[in-house]
């Protein structure tokens, strides 16, 4: 599923959600991104005309 990661400073990174479960999710970042473990990010999802934002905890 196509998605984007938004850092608190406003930078956006294109990504793909590869695995989603109750225990977490796997994300493949398209290109280079500078995200540190523990950094607060928003995960932006879009499916059809519906947009969703969540705040996961980032772990490398």
TrEMBL record:
GO molecular function, one term: cellulose synthase (UDP-forming) activity
Name of a matching Pfam family: PilZ
Domain of life of the native organism: Bacteria
InterPro entries: PilZ_domain
Enzyme class: transferase
Statement: the UniProt record of this protein carries the keyword Transmembrane: no
Keyword Glycosyltransferase: yes
UniProt domain PilZ: residue ranges: 7-46
E.C. number(s) listed in UniProt: 2.4.1.12
Keywords: Glycosyltransferase, Transferase
Coiled coil regions, renumbered to chain: none
UniProt protein name: Cellulose synthase catalytic subunit
